[in-house]
Design goal:
Elements (H helix, E strand, L loop, with lengths): L3 E7 L4 E7 L1 H11 L3 H18 L7 E8 L6 E6 L3 E6 L17 H4 L3 E8 L6 E6 L5 H11 L5 E9 L5 E11 L5 H13 L3 H7 L2 H9 L4 E8 L1 E2 L5 H9 L3 H10 L3 E4 L6 E4 L1 H16 L1
Parallel strand pairs: 5-11
Antiparallel strand pairs: 1-2, 1-10, 2-9, 3-4, 3-6, 4-5, 6-7, 8-9, 12-13
Helix pairs in contact: 1-2, 8-10, 9-10
Length: about 300
């Protein structure tokens, strides 16, 4: 399955839409964090929603989505950008809640029914833009829909799906976001709502189809214009250098304690699980840099 996002505009220019297939990105997150079923779906849906929001960004802008609920999965944090890069983690990756009879994955018990859904946009300004809403239901797609309507004043419909196979591996992952444009008539909105309610599941469409098939279902074939296409991938920009700078900010006392007690330090990236080892000599160099900053 190809991993990409389509931007489109309905033929009558009443709606803009984004359709996405990103199985590999979600599967990589599952592998890196060793997530179990409910954690996989909760994290995966948040990643998909963040990619859809990121599709509205430009240049080097970035977006962070935080889902802080009272469910067993704990905090979910996902970063996305304007280039289709996405990374994320869930605080408790080992949540596996399924219906005994059908094997259907419970997600809201992992996210919770009370909490805060927050979006932070870093657009290169002095202060990042931040908006948040209280949970509507704990269903990730509903939180994205409500956030867009309430915080960004953009009436929208968001659909997200992560479907697992019998071995709980990611089989399909994708979704859509449709936003109402100024000038859309009540009749056009009502027709769209009717089509969305009648459409098959996203997993069903993506099992044999592509993002184009999602748009065909939402608008009707040839009833929209594709604007552009963007590849989507799991990508983390962490590095040993970045973690080194982070260690420097801990201060000379903390770094000296690392040297005295362990003679080394290991840093682990929350987003991708990569580990970076700093030996005693490297820590001593960071210690000197930290002392220099303190003296300044």
């Amino acid at each position: 399955m190809e991993n990409y996002l389509l931007r489109a505009l309905s033929k009558d220019k009443s709606f803009r839409a984004f359709a996405l297939s990103a199985k590999d990105a979600v599967a990589e997150a599952q592998e890196r964090h060793d997530t179990w079923s409910s954690s996989t779906v909760a994290l995966g849906r948040t990643m998909l929603g963040a990619v859809l929001l990121g599709a509205n960004l430009k240049g080097n802008d970035k977006i962070t989505v935080k889902v802080s609920g009272n469910g067993s999965g704990g905090l979910i944090v996902v970063d996305s950008d304007a280039k289709g890069n996405v990374k994320g983690f869930i605080q408790n990756p080992h949540v596996d809640l399924r219906k005994t009879s059908t094997g259907e994955v419970y997600v809201t018990q992992a996210t919770g029914n009370q909490g805060v859904f927050a979006v932070i946009k870093d657009m290169g300004l002095k202060e990042p833009y931040s908006g948040q809403i209280p949970f509507v239901s704990g269903e990730i797609a509903e939180e994205f829909t409500y956030y867009l309507t309430e915080s960004e004043q953009t009436p929208s419909s968001v659909g997200l799906s992560v479907h697992l196979d019998e071995e709980q591996r990611v089989q399909t992952a994708g979704g859509f976001m449709v936003q109402v444009m100024p000038g859309a008539t009540d009749e056009a909105i009502a027709e769209l709502e009717s089509r969305l309610q009648a459409m098959p599941s996203i997993a069903e469409i993506l099992e044999t189809g592509k993002p184009e098939d999602l748009l065909d279902t939402i608008f009707g074939k040839d009833e929209y214009k594709t604007l552009d296409q963007m590849s989507v991938q799991f990508h983390c920009d962490c590095s040993k250098e970045k973690f080194g700078k982070g260690i420097i900010t801990l201060g000379s006392q903390e770094i000296q304690a690392m040297i005295d007690e362990d003679h080394q330090a290991e840093a682990v990236c929350h987003f991708c699980g990569e580990k970076y080892l700093f030996n005693e000599e490297e820590l001593k160099e960071l210690l000197e840099e930290s002392k220099g900053l303190e003296n300044d």
